[in-house]
Amino acid sequence: MMISYPGLSKLKTKQVVYQNALLARDSGTLEQLKELSSKRKGVEESINENGFVTEAIAREMSGGLTSRCERDIQKLENYLPLLENLVHHVDLVGNNRHMTCWISDLKIRWSSGLTSSSIFHLNGPKFYQINDLHFEIGMSLFLYGTMLREWALEVLSTNLVQSATLFRKASGVYHYLSHEVLPPLQSALPPERPPEASSCVCSVMSLICLADAQAVTVRKAEENVNTGGLLAKLHYGVKEFLVEAIIVLQSATGECKDISSRLLDFLSCCKTLHELKSYKYLAEGLRNDGKIGIAVGVLRQALANVKNMPKEESWRLVSKGVIDDLTGLLRKYEHENDFVWHEKPPNNDELPLPQAVKVVSAIPYQQQKWERTLVFNM
């Protein structure tokens, strides 16, 4: 999209050492628990930014990956299958009192990048401790989706096709979280929980990534000098994704009391920007068809619909640029109409509206699980 929302990937976590809490019956299980802890430590050090590995060594360890986003994704892809396998075997045990006690000893703690306090917390990030391995899967997958989105933004300037694909993959991860992982967990979660553990918030993130993917598609269409009519429909499709996300987010406030209002401001700003761009291309198409009076009416209506400017300065500057662009185009068309065509713009209820076209969909997330036998001493 035309503005960005930094900070989503600023999750933090506390150390988890699986072999210290879960009692293995055999050496094979113990080794697998140690490997699981090792893979998680790699994730911990990366997101907590407390590792001591140089850039050159990190690149060599990852097989030559130069992007930090790619390296973090690789670490998560190495960790998640082992974690899924552990959860599978723990679930087979059921509500065994020893296992419940051991899981509690893991002290699974994550911070949030979406709470209103996540930016201004004076004593460092606030950690939420929820003693459930499904919570660990949920937060790890949320981080995975976020890193896919970060990588998509990273390659946006060089590879539009790859960027759109990564956004669609991220959308699939969030959709999987929202519909498969988190719903069974909701009743077990305490009232105080990170927004990232909410099904509604993950649905919002899935829709944001679809809007991102379609916005990349629009950019590619603009580069190919497509007709204004198609561009108007594509931009309006982005707007429709964002409207849906706003509706879901507003319903999520009951689950997440501390979710930052900045996210809603971001969505509202993006919606307005793509709506304005849609009206711009619609007006240009109408003017090219000789309907300049209607084009003037469309631009006037679009600018009249702008009610509030975003609070964040960088977003405000982008918004002002788009509004100034439409204002200049309106003046040009009004001047041309006054001196040449003399058409009367129709009433607002007679003006055409852009039609939304959605051309992207999520790439479904495929659960990864390494089939390894784990035996615990209970």
Automatic annotation (TrEMBL):
<feature type="domain" description="BRO1">
    <location>
        <begin position="1"/>
        <end position="378"/>
    </location>
</feature>
<dbReference type="InterPro" id="IPR038499">
    <property type="entry name" value="BRO1_sf"/>
</dbReference>
<dbReference type="Pfam" id="PF03097">
    <property type="entry name" value="BRO1"/>
</dbReference>
<dbReference type="InterPro" id="IPR038898">
    <property type="entry name" value="BROX"/>
</dbReference>
<comment type="similarity">
    <text>Belongs to the BROX family.</text>
</comment>
<dbReference type="InterPro" id="IPR004328">
    <property type="entry name" value="BRO1_dom"/>
</dbReference>
<protein>
    <recommendedName>
        <fullName>BRO1 domain-containing protein</fullName>
    </recommendedName>
</protein>
